[in-house]
Description:
By secondary structure, the chain is mostly helical. The chain is built from 2 helices and no strands.
Amino acid sequence: MSPFLGPLDASGRVPPRQQTRIAAFLVSAHGALARQLAFTLYGPLNAGWQTELNA
Length: 55
């Protein structure tokens, strides 16, 4: 038993289904942080290709 990852299999590894849940949570948290950052940065943001196009 891991305090962070839950029950482990006989080999001491995180089971595949639990790995999928952890991965989904991390991707969701990363998306939420990116969305929050996008809202806190105000003003026009130029994409990299626009900057190169106008340079």
